[in-house]
Write a structure and sequence with these properties.
The complex is a heterodimer. Chain A is of the alpha+beta class. Chain A contains eight helices and 21 strands. Chain A is globular and about 75 Å long. Classes of the chains: A alpha+beta, B mainly alpha.
Chain lengths: ~350, ~575
């Protein structure tokens, strides 16, 4: 029985389709990330699950109970879901402890709230008010407030994007650990592929209201469903070509096999910058360096592919900083080349 | 399994259908009730005109129109010059007393125009202290010199400019504060003098705000009744009043009211148009503390004078005169004063409470997501403030009298009892008219308070298991306490000052502070009128102070409290 299930959910704002025939099931204890560019419908999906938007088409169930279908939607306060926003939405007129106790209806609300605060390591700040806390602390209060009523489903809308980069990783890990201990089904909305890969058991990549691909982070990264999915995780060098009779597409870097495509069909070949490496063996290709930049652990090197073609972008690790004009020999890791029908 | 759960949940789910919900229905009903008086007046323009109307249109109508236009022109120019000029001085220049002037320039707002009118009449007419002093000093007799007549069209314009310029000051000052300093500094580097920067950049950028402020003050001027009646300058409002009570012809009064409504509607459209263009306020988004221009002694003195005069003439002088008169021998005794004060409270307290309650209902209803019809309804309900009290009185009295007559006829027919007029001349009817007029004041204040509660706070509270009503009680209301107080206070003061609707609708022999002050002043018993007038002014100062404090905090880029 799924913790949270969307069946054939479609949602429109006027003429515009925000969510198009969405089907996702999230098991208890699982973290599913809705990933996509802004406007792809991921936040609408989350709001539908929370009951903040009235469902138009399809069905949403929580813990096996239908909470919304075409005939009506259960009000948000009756769904028992936890909700965390980018801006945390702490109530400024209530103390931290009262904020956390807000959703607890049991008799020992304050004790429960204190326990939740202890879990996020803010047990001693209960009497403070939201504006007295740092961003990271506010985020943890929002988390404590959401888990305190022990919801079976946790919905998070870009919960970490308000934090500065160095704090973010730590808070993410802590949050993940805490969520795992509650056993809730988690739906997390983000536009950041790295965050999704870091947090998710499974990722649902969305584009224009549709789920383009649903799978583990590894599946999405290594077996992207289409060119857009491949590009979303890392910008890639792209070459257009035709599949030859030998089942391969010719590129300036040599032929790439396209087993799934019929000979004669148009194809797009994507080669990730990480797929390129220095190689002095006979298989490699000599290319002239246009410019090189150090990015820390690796370097970004652009090679000239000749007139009329965009430079080839490579990320070389360990970093190399060859001067412009140097000729280097490059080969391609076939595992990070993708061929899609164009 | 899902199927059984589904049946279990079906009933709970069915409660929440798209479109029509309880809040929408409530908002729609409220709006419909409050739109009724205006609709009444508007539709009366279509009903056939009687003998009185023909008489009016042949004789005084053209006078009403010319007078109203002259009044509007004078008030428009006067408030624009004083309001925008002082606003520029206090926001952009540095001179002694500038911080004091910044909020004190709001003070004349606390003085109703009619109070100013009879205070000035008392001070400056033939028998007043000023001309008396003049005669004592020069030895002239009354016929030896010319002295401007206060009770005239220019006098009426002067009175209204003095109390209405704060509307323009309010909005243009806000606009000047919002202007990016960068634009002005670039203007200076491109060769503008400080004054050149004002004329070529500051003023054009603030033009939408200026238009809004002038439109507001013109609506007030058109709706004014006390001043023009007291000065015997015949405009639409005094005409409506006279046609209603003097000639006893509601239909013709409604015709006049409908004409006035057209003028107000034109002003509102103009204001909306000006606001639509207000987008070019924000030319860049960088804000820094305004580098105020330090003035040289002579110009600093001129600036001080320019700011001090409106405050002196519009607030200090009348307040002092009223205080002197009130404390003199002829001042009103305490006992009758308390009676009038109690009557005023009887009207103002319930109105303020109801207005705030309804405003919360409408504002929160809108927030919960209303249909388009609901939104339009709220806009209509919040329109009353633009409509003069005399028009609203007509719009409320006509349907209420009709209802009373219908009830009376029905009771006589079926039970042989005459109920007479139940609602007409009742306190409930007066309060309803006030609500029609002042709901917008409360609504706008409550709306801006609601904006402090972010939508995600709503969502958080709901997902934590709180119903909409519970969320309102536990989240919104506590966070809006200051706005609610301000809203109630604003309505309270407006009711206290209100004259024409009260005069036309009050219960028999039911005198409020405003009515008594006005009647006494009309009978040339200025000293007696002073105490109730002073009370009105004193209470009126409270929201002015609240408002100027709130505005000082609202500058973008400056530290705003509590966020």
């Amino acid at each position: 029985m799924a913790g949270l299930a969307f069946s054939n959910v479609t949602h429109r704002f006027g003429q515009r389709i925000a969510v198009d025939d969405l089907n996702i099931e999230i098991e208890a204890g699982e973290v599913v990330c809705l990933l996509g560019p802004s406007g792809c419908g991921k936040t609408t999906t989350l709001r539908l699950a929370a009951g903040l938007e009235t469902l138009q088409q399809g069905r949403i169930a929580i813990g096996g109970h239908v909470v919304a279908d075409e005939r009506g939607s259960l009000a948000p306060e009756k769904r028992h879901v936890g909700l965390i926003f980018q801006d945390y939405a702490l109530f400024p007129h209530l103390s931290i402890l009262d904020n956390v106790a807000f959703g607890i209806t049991r008799r020992d609300a304050l004790a429960e709230a204190q326990a939740a605060l202890d879990k996020v390591g803010l047990g001693d700040r209960g009497r403070s008010f939201p504006h007295m806390l740092s961003g990271g602390e506010q985020q943890r209060v929002a988390l404590a407030r959401a888990i305190a009523p022990r919801p079976a489903v946790m919905l998070m809308d870009e919960p970490f994007s308000g934090l500065d980069v160095r704090l973010r990783d730590r808070v993410r890990d802590e949050t993940l650990a805490l969520l795992a201990s509650t056993g809730a089904a988690v739906l997390l909305v983000t536009h950041d592929p790295e965050e999704a890969m870091r947090m998710a058991s499974r990722i649902a990549l969305m584009r224009a209201g549709r789920v383009v691909q649903l799978g583990t982070p590894e599946e999405l990264y290594n077996r992207p469903a289409d060119a857009g999915a491949a590009r979303f995780f890392a910008e890639a060098n792209s070459f257009a070509g035709t599949v030859g009779d030998d089942g391969q597409v010719a590129t300036p870097l040599g032929p790439v096999p396209a087993p799934a495509l019929r000979p004669g069909s148009r194809a797009e070949v994507l080669i990730r910058p990480h797929a390129l490496r220095l190689d002095d063996s006979g298989q490699s290709l000599p290319l002239r360096v246009l410019r090189a930049r150090l990015l820390g652990a690796d370097s970004l090197v652009e090679f000239d592919l000749g007139p009329g073609l965009s430079p080839l972008v490579a990320r070389l690790s360990p970093p190399h900083l060859p001067p412009a004009g140097t000729e280097m020999r490059i080969s391609v890791d076939p595992g990070q080349c993708f061929v899609f029908a164009a | 399994m899902a199927l059984t759960d589904y049946r279990l949940n079906a009933r709970r789910i069915a409660g929440r259908r798209r479109g029509l919900n309880g809040w929408t229905v409530l908002a729609l009903c409220t709006a419909a009730i409050f739109a009724l008086p205006v609709a009444m007046v508007a539709s009366s323009a279509l009903s056939p005109a009687g003998e009185t109307w023909r008489h009016l249109s042949e004789t005084v109508l053209s006078l009403y129109i010319t007078n109203s236009i002259v009044l509007m022109l004078g008030v428009g120019v006067g408030t624009a010059v004083i309001g925008a000029g002082t606003a520029w001085l206090v926001t952009m220049c540095r001179f002694p007393g500038q911080r004091l002037f910044e909020w004190a320039l709001f003070l004349p707002m606390a003085v109703p125009a009619y109070v100013l009118a009879y205070t000035y009449t008392g001070l400056f007419d033939v028998a007043g202290p000023v001309q008396g002093l003049l005669r004592d000093l020069t030895g002239w007799s009354v016929r030896d010199y010319w002295f401007p007549d206060i009770r005239s069209m220019p006098g009426a314009i002067a009175m209204m400019v003095l109390v209405l310029y704060p509307y323009v000051y309010l909005v243009t000052r806000a606009a000047f504060l919002e202007q990016s300093v960068c634009v002005l500094e670039i203007g200076r580097t491109l060769g503008c003098s400080p004054w050149g920067a004002f004329w070529r950049l500051g003023l054009p950028l603030a033009r939408p705000a200026l238009a809004t402020g002038v439109a507001l003050s013109l609506m007030e001027a058109l709706g004014d009744f006390g001043t023009v009646q007291y000065f015997a300058v015949d405009t639409f409002t005094s005409g409506i009043f006279r046609t209603w009570l003097g000639l006893g012809d509601p239909v013709s009064a409604a015709h006049l009211a409908a004409l006035l409504l057209v003028a107000i509607a034109a002003l509102m459209l103009g204001e909306r148009y000006a606001r639509g263009a207000a987008r070019f306020h924000h030319t860049t988004t960088r804000y820094r503390p305004l580098p105020r221009l330090a003035l040289k002694p002579v110009s600093a003195f001129a600036a001080m004078l320019a700011c001090a005069l409106p405050i002196l003439l519009g607030f200090v002088l009348p307040a002092v005169a009223l205080a002197v008169w009130a404390s003199g021998e002829d001042g009103m005794a305490l006992a009758p004063f308390l009676t009038y004060a109690r009557n005023t409270l009887t009207l103002a307290v319930p109105t303020a409470a109801l207005a705030v309650g309804l405003a919360v209902l409408l504002g929160y209803g809108r927030r919960l997501g209303l249909s388009r019809a609901g939104k339009v309804a709220i806009r209509i309900a919040a329109m009353g403030y633009a409509i003069p009290g005399a028009v609203i009185a007509v719009g409320v009295l006509v349907p209420i009298a009709g209802l009373d007559n219908a009830v009376d006829a029905w009771m006589r027919e079926h039970f042989g009892v005459s109920t007479g007029l139940i609602l007409t001349g009742s306190i409930a009817a007066v309060i309803f008219a006030y609500l029609v007029r002042f709901l917008a004041v409360a609504f706008n204040t409550v709306e801006s308070g609601l904006e402090k509660v972010t939508p995600s706070m709503d969502a958080a509270a709901r997902s934590l298991g709180r119903s909409p009503l519970d969320t309102l009680r536990r989240v919104h209301l506590p966070m809006m306490r200051a706005s609610l107080t301000t809203a109630a206070l604003l309505v309270f003061v407006d009711v206290m000052k209100e004259l024409p609707a009260t005069l036309m609708m009050r219960p028999f022999n039911f005198d409020t502070l405003a009515i008594k002050a006005y009647e006494l002043a009309s009978d040339e018993r200025l000293s007696e009128a002073a105490l109730p007038s002073l009370a009105i002014v004193a209470v009126g100062v409270l929201p002015v102070i609240l408002m100027s404090r709130a505005i000082a905090k609202a500058r973008p880029g400056s530290q705003s409290a509590g966020s």
